[in-house]
Amino acid sequence: MLSKNLGAVSIVAGTSIGAGMLGLPMAIGSLGFVTGSLVLLFMWIVAMYVALLLLEINLEFGKGVNLNFMTRKILGRPGQLLGTGSVFFLFYCLLVAYLTGMGGIIASNTGLDARMGTLIFAGISATLLFSGTHSVVTANKYLFIGMLVAMVACFATLGGQLNLENLAIGQPKAKLLIMSLPVLFTSFGYHPCIPSIVNYIGDDRKTLIRIFGVGSTIPFICYFAWLTLALGSATPDQLAVMDNVDVLISQMSGGSTWVSSILSLFASLALVTSFIGVAFALFDLVAETFRRKDDKVSRAGTTAMVFFPPLAASLLAPNGFIAALAHAGAAFTIIAIFIPCVMVWKMRAAGLNKSYRVVGGKPALVLSFMCGIVIVTASYL
Questions:
Q1: Which of 1, 103, 253, 262 is the most exposed, fewest CB within 10 Å of its CB?
Q2: pTM exceeds cut of 0.70
Q3: What Cα–Cα distance (Å) separates residue 53 from each residue in 7, 59, 106, 126, 215?
Q4: CA distance linking residue 88 with residue 310, whole number of Å
């Protein structure tokens, strides 16, 4: 059971620590350390609250039920189309970001073209996803542990070249702060995996809350340390003009091959663990939505449906890392804030969810919904 819980925690944390983390310095570098840290804390609180809302909804329906069915039951056909469509859009945008990020890293370390790097990564990942749930969870667990080790090595290395004066530099302007919210919120983007985790763990509420609590706190701590090191290694102006992971690595390494290698390893593992979590959840959603079977031929077809659309977009726009994250932020807000708030409101009004209700009542639901409006607006400023 402990191994199973650890696997679930690794899915939550590993799905979060990925493209979003690597994009944080580029998104909030110009705000400065203090403002950036406070906004990061606020987004973590919002993300944890709406995660518990999704858990409240999922526990009412029980294990084995995905978002597609839950939205249809509570919000009807229009709600189902909006929810499922937003989940597909979110997952594909995130996979585009991961594929372009990994393509850039592979290209910078091998001399290959970025598109070729993307193809190689997509091929390996598709093979893993096709192999089945147990293989995916097991691989992600060990990759996540490896990522944490690489992260510690990365943090220790960067700590030696930290320039504390850079932490005092920044321009915390309101527009820049608002524009950073979609990337920040997407950095805690484990919510679409919640139905899959409930299905994997069961309906043990206390265990699930601990899994989401621990799984989301690990990214927050890592983000805070990463933000400190990134802002201490580059000026806000340098961070503001970056558009892909390989450029960030090059700047933070300061010309050191050793530092660049460690950063590349960490970034690669962060992207891979996040990619696996999202691809895992998208695979389940595709299988349920299109009623795909679980035999080898059907799994091959489902895998193709997961990979071909984002792979095509990645090959057409190999530098679309930040743009993909911004679009993902808007879709993620619909899924993780708007739909859960409306569903919980309706379910509580109907007298449901009596066994477990997230604290805060209607005021917390309204405040979360308003926060979502700001995030979606910021995605297209």
A1: 1
A2: yes
A3: 22, 10, 38, 32, 16
A4: 11
Q: Which two tokens stand for residue 202?
A: 């069961």
Question: Domain locations in the chain?
Answer: 2-379
CA distance 16 to 273: 9
Class of 2-379 in CATH: mainly alpha
Look-up of token digits 């079977």: 293
- pLDDT at residue 364 in the model: 95
If one compares 51 and 30, the residue with the highest pLDDT of the two is 51
Instruction: Give the span between the Cα atoms of 337 and 331, in whole angstroms.
Output: 10
Phi and psi at residue 360, to the nearest 5°: 120, -25
18 vs 38: CA distance, rounded Å: 21
Residue 45 CA to chain centroid, in angstroms?
15
Identify whether the C-beta of residue 311 lies closer than 8 Å to the C-beta of residue 324: no
Q: Are 274 and 16 a contacting pair, CB within 8 Å?
A: yes
Burial of 10 (0-12, 13-18, 19+ CB in 10 A): buried
Q: How far is 223 from 228, CA to CA, in rounded Å? A: 8
- Measured between alpha carbons, how far is 39 from 27 in angstroms, rounded to an integer? 12
Element (H, E) at 378: helix 361-379
pLDDT at 25: 82
pLDDT digits (tens, 9 = 90+) for 243-284: 667 777 777 777 778 888 888 888 888 888 778 878 887 888
